[in-house]
């Protein structure tokens, strides 16, 4: 009988990282978007705004998945979470203002404090909440070849089933 060999050797690790630290690493090129990722402009302002509001309110958001680069283990490839990281980076760097209250149904506790504002216009306590928020980051084992990284990306992005209209009503109205 043939001996079984898994496609991935090593283990995936999990850690929390603050947004300000992740943004610094993204800016320095220590985190990068590989060429197999779709264009980071897939999300509209409403979706980006709701992500930022989720962070402000301390809601859990899906983890970011990274993998050490084949060429340089000090650089990490973003396998999943590019849209989230790019939206956060664009907001923190002042490239868009959050959507207005008319366009997004924000939570009552923050709506008036964040709607329509750029990051620099937010109150200090809200800006700190964003910078201090810790994202879950899963780091895949080093040495994974491109084909395996692509397979992980494909499975994550094809695995979900979009919510039906009934699913959305149920989640909204119970």
Uncertain parts: none
Q: Which strands sit side by side, in order, in the main sheet?
A: 1-5-3-4-2
* General form: globular
- Approximate strand percentage: 5-15%
Query: Counting H and I runs of at least 4 residues, what is the number of helices?
Result: 7
- Encode the helix/strand succession as letters: EHEHEEHHHEHH
**Major sheet attributes:** 5 strands, mixed
Any overview of this molecule?
The protein has 174 residues and is an alpha/beta fold. It has one domain (15-159). 39% of the residues lie in helices and 14% in strands. It has helices at 19-27, 45-56, 82-92, 111-114, 124-132, 146-159, 165-173; strands spanning 13-18, 31-32, 64-68, 76-80, 134-139. The protein has a five-stranded mixed beta sheet with strand order 1-5-3-4-2. It starts with 12 loop residues before the first strand and ends with a helix.
Task: Give the gist of this structure.
This protein has 174 residues and is α/β, with parallel strands linked by helices. The protein is built from 7 helices and 5 strands; from the N terminus they run E-H-E-H-E-E-H-H-H-E-H-H.
């Amino acid at each position: 009988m043939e001996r079984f060999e898994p496609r991935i050797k090593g283990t995936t690790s999990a850690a929390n990282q603050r947004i300000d630290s992740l943004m610094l690493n993204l800016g320095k090129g220590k985190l990068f978007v590989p060429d197999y990722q779709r264009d980071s402009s897939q999300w509209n302002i409403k979706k980006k705004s709701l992500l930022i509001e989720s962070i402000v309110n301390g809601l859990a958001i899906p983890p970011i998945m990274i993998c050490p680069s084949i060429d340089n283990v000090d650089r990490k490839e973003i396998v999943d979470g590019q849209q989230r990281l790019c939206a956060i980076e664009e907001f923190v760097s002042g490239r868009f203002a959050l959507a207005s209250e008319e366009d997004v149904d924000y939570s009552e506790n923050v709506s008036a404090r964040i709607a329509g504002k750029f990051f620099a216009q937010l109150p200090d306590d809200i800006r700190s909440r964003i910078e201090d928020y810790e994202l879950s980051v899963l780091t895949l084992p080093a040495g994974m070849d491109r084909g395996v990284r692509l397979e992980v990306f494909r499975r994550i992005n094809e695995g979900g089933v979009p919510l039906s209209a009934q699913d959305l009503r149920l989640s909204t109205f119970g």
